[in-house]
């Protein structure tokens, strides 16, 4: 009854909705922490520039948070609507983790977001800072639960299978499963880096307009510090995560490397820089290889061996070109971003950080680099997990709901159209906001004020239809 | 191990609580959108939206909790009902996205305001109708084979589910009107007193029809309600129903500002209790009980710790938030203190 097409559409739908969604939580994780730092520095130093930056970025945070909320509602229901096999077999574990996310993170964020967005003029500075910290911590708690759940699907632990269902044995082992610490750190750093390039790009944009603008200089400087500090750490964490994948998900790692198996007369695994992996002939065409380098970073020995794809049954291979290429996009952008960070440090040393217009322009171009790398990384890890939904234990084909092609096609079209519209509105609005001068008025609202919104988007007090009179 | 045996029943009530919180709280928020077509002036619509603006976000979070809780505590029910109600549920989340977006952008635009008005109102109505259809679909039952939904894509579609969809629109409409009576004054308040009456009468009729239709279409439910000695003590349900309807309508005529809202909530709770009576101990009629659908006791007991610690905190914040935003909303201004 379940045609392959319904499964393909369901997979595409999940990939589409979750890729769309993940951008905004990453946005919120990074920006909430940045706002916490800005407000903390303002309280500590009393410098107005931090306060101005806080007010500038909180409006953008509000829009991104709102988009995260509406696209997140879809995710909570999709596990059941499209993946009922998975929900029924693994709900004892993943359903519980999701519920804890709602209870500990969603309500915490909702609880303090209102004060954070609109409470500046009605609560003490300390209480307001406390609210900002709670929202920032809420985004991190949320990341913790959802990555515990995802990591458990990648490297399941602490369970037993009873009548085909996954039942918990040890919650500690379930949450702190083998890949969880690496994955959590990798994701949170990715969110911080994405936002630092966003902030850097916006700072660069404003420096191009006026290189004496103190707020633009400050945000540009902070972003460049973040880039040069966070990227080396991220690359080390990524390397450790890769070794963890080699240990627990060797087929995924072989696909990431595009490594089919040892060639006759060859010892060691080459680093394949580029090439066209071909699953039918189990070779990589036009491969540009550096001998033994992958052995070096994977086994820390020149002639160390890893398992090639050919040593796995054909029906346990992920889609090799997808994993191979998405991994290269992520790593390539990571290296490029590291280069930007180092360049920034060099220019700072030469006292040219605020003078080099070409570098400011470059930061505007690389503004989305972190987000693209982040999505590419998720494609690598989720695509590389295939054909499993729970690695090595449950296949994706068994996880799908018994749905008809027509139903999934209809819902998929609905999501594509609706997301295109709301993404369009959101991006249009964020673009308008980042172009404004980074000096803003204290946001109004709350009881006793006109419009008293406690909701995210309404932190933005500007008319969409610029030219016309705002209604009051 | 009677504690383990009882956990699923406790969980049924905890999930029922989250659903009740959602239905009542987002019920009046969606009701405001349902009433939009009956109120034309722009500044009146501002007041209506302002009355729910500070709280609708939190209200909707209860739906996420209900869904996630079902997933964690009764994964089988989650895995059967969500694919079975696929199309109405997808329609509901899409409508809720539009409702949320309209909420945010209506205030920020002048030129496209009529568009966002229509999106807000249409989104609210479609979301409500879809929820009512899901309710009807669940009451009429779904086919399950081997712990999987085995019916078609349109099994939920029936005159009965269309009727429950309509009934819920009326129900949320009444909740919206009685909420707005509390939050407004003067001419606008009179408008909602005027609107509340037909909504209350039509809802009462619709609930009566559903209450009669359900046992007639379903012999198992008929046996629960119409056999001795059940029939005697269950007779209290229709009596309570009639008393509530009478006092709501009386309250509307005599202008009992706050009590109408409280009694409308009571009417919803009564309906939910009736549903539990018709279902318990089944969670997917005709054969799957709450115990069979429950996740392992290790899952349910781990979850219950978090629930018991965090729900009171969440309730405290919610209460605080409503207190902060209490009072009448006036035309051309925000909250008055």
Explain this structure to me?
- The complex is a heterodimer of chains A (472) and B (337).
- Chain A has 472 residues and is mainly alpha-helical.
- Chain A is 67% helix and 6% strand.
- Chain A has one domain.
- Chain A contains 14 helices and six strands.
- In chain A, β5 and β6 form a beta hairpin.
- In chain A, α1 packs across α6, α4 packs across α6 and α6 crosses α11.
- Chain B has one domain.
- Chain B is built from 14 helices and four strands.
- In chain B, the strands form two sheets. Chain B has a two-stranded antiparallel ribbon with strand order 1-2. Chain B has a two-stranded antiparallel sheet with strand order 3-4.
- The interface between A and B is large, with 79 and 79 residues.
- Chain B: One of its GO terms (biological process) is aerobic electron transport chain.
- Chain B: GO terms for molecular function: electron transfer activity; oxidoreductase activity, acting on diphenols and related substances as donors, oxygen as acceptor.
- Chain B: Keywords: Cell membrane, Membrane, Transmembrane, Transmembrane helix.
**Which stretches of chain A are poorly predicted, pLDDT < 50 over at least 5 residues?**
440-472
Tally of extended strands of chain B?
Answer: 4
Helix content estimate of chain B: over 70%
Give the quaternary arrangement of the chains: heterodimer
The H/E string of chain B reads: HHHHHHEEHHHHHHEEHH
Which structural class do you get from the secondary structure elements of chain A?
A: mainly alpha
Say how many strands of chain A there are.
Answer: 6
Content-based structural category of chain B: mainly alpha
Distance between the termini of chain B: 54 Å
List the strand order in the largest sheet of chain B. Answer: 1-2
Mean pLDDT of chain B: 88
Strand content of chain A: 5-15%
Report mean pLDDT of chain A, rounded to a whole number: 86
Q: Order of strands side by side in the largest beta sheet of chain A?
A: 1-2
Main location (chain B): membrane
Transmembrane segments (chain B): 12-39, 84-103, 115-140, 160-182, 194-213, 233-253, 265-284, 304-322
Family (chain B): Belongs to the cytochrome ubiquinol oxidase subunit 2 family.
Organism (chain B): Larsenimonas rhizosphaerae
């Amino acid at each position: 009854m379940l045609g392959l097409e319904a499964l393909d559409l369901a997979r595409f739908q999940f990939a589409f909705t979750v890729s769309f969604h993940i951008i905004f939580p990453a946005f919120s994780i990074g920006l909430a922490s940045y706002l916490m730092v800005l407000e903390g520095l303002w309280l500590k130093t009393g410098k107005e520039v931090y306060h101005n930056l806080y007010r500038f970025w909180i409006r953008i945070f509000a829009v991104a948070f709102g988009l995260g909320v509406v696209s997140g509602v879809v995710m909570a229901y999709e596990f059941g609507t499209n993946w009922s096999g998975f929900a029924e077999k693994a709900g004892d574990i993943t359903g519980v983790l999701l519920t804890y996310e709602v209870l500990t993170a969603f309500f915490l964020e909702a609880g303090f977001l209102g004060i954070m967005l609109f409470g500046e003029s009605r609560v003490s500075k300390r209480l307001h800072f406390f609210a900002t910290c709670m929202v920032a911590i809420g985004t991190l708690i949320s990341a913790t639960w959802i990555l515990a759940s995802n990591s458990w699907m990648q490297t399941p632990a602490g369970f037993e299978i009873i009548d085909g269902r996954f039942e918990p044995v040890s919650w500690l082992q379930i949450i702190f499963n083998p890949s969880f610490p690496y994955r959590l750190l990798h994701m949170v750093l990715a969110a911080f880096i994405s936002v630092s390039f966003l902030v850097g790009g916006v700072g660069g944009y404003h420096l191009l307009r006026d290189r004496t603008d103190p707020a633009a200089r400050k945000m540009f400087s902070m972003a460049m510090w973040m880039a040069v500090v966070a990227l080396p750490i991220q690359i080390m964490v990524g390397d450790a995560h890769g070794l963890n994948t080699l240990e627990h998900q060797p087929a995924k790692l072989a696909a990431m490397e595009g490594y089919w198996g040892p060639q006759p007369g060859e010892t060691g695994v080459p680093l394949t820089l580029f090439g066209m992996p071909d699953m039918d002939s189990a070779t990589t065409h036009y491969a540009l290889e550096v001998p033994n380098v992958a052995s070096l970073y994977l086994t820390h020995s020149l002639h160390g061996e890893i398992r090639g794809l050919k040593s796995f049954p054909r029906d346990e291979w992920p889609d090799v070109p997808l994993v191979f290429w998405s991994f290269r996009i992520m790593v390539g952008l990571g290296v490029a971003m590291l280069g930007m960070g180092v360049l920034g440090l060099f220019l700072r040393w030469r006292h040219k950080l605020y003078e080099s217009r070409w570098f400011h322009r470059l930061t505007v171009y690389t503004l989305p680099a972190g987000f693209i790398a982040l999505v590419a990384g998720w494609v690598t890890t989720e695509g590389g997990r295939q054909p499993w939904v729970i690695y090595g234990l449950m296949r994706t084909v068994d996880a799908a709901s018994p749905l008809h092609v027509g139903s999934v096609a209809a819902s998929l079209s609905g999501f594509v159209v609706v997301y295109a519209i709301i993404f369009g509105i959101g991006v249009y609005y964020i673009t308008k906001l980042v172009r404004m001068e980074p000096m803003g008025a204290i946001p109004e609202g709350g009881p006793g004020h006109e419009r008293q919104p406690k909701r995210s988007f309404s932190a933005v007090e500007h008319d969409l239809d610029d030219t016309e009179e705002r209604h009051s | 191990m009677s504690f383990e045996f009882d956990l699923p029943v406790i969980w049924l009530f905890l999930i029922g609580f989250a659903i009740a919180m959602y239905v009542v709280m987002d019920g009046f928020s969606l009701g405001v959108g349902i009433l939009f077509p009956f109120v034309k002036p722009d500044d009146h619509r501002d007041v209506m939206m302002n009355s729910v603006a500070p709280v609708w976000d939190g209200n909707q979070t209860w739906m996420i909790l209900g869904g996630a809780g079902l997933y964690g505590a009764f994964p089988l029910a989650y895995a059967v009902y969500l694919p079975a109600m696929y199309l109405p549920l997808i329609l509901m989340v899409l409508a809720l996205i539009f409702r949320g977006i309209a909420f945010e952008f209506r205030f920020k635009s002048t030129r496209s305001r009529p568009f966002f008005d229509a999106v807000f109102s249409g989104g609210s109505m479609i979301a409500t109708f879809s929820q009512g259809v899901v309710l009807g679909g669940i009451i009429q039952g779904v086919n399950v084979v081997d712990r999987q939904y085995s019916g078609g894509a349109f099994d939920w579609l029936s005159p009965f589910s269309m009727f429950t969809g309509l009934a819920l629109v009326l129900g949320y409409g009444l909740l919206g009107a009685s909420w707005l009576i509390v939050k407004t004054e003067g001419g606008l308040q009179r408008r909602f007193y005027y609107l509340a009456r037909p909504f209350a009468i039509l809802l009462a009729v619709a609930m009566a029809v559903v209450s009669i239709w359900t046992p007639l279409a379903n012999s198992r439910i008929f046996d629960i309600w119409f056999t001795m000695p059940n029939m005697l003590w269950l007779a209290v349900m229709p009596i309570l129903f009639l008393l509530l309807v009478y006092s709501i309508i009386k309250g509307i005529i005599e202008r009992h500002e706050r009590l109408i809202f409280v009694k409308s909530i009571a009417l919803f709770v009564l309906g939910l209790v009736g549903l539990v009576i018709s279902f318990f101990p089944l969670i997917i009629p005709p054969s799957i009980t709450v115990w069979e659908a429950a996740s392992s006791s290790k899952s349910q007991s781990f979850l219950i710790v978090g629930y018991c610690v965090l729900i009171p905190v969440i309730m405290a914040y919610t209460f605080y938030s409503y207190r902060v935003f209490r009072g009448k909303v006036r035309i051309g201004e925000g909250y008055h203190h």
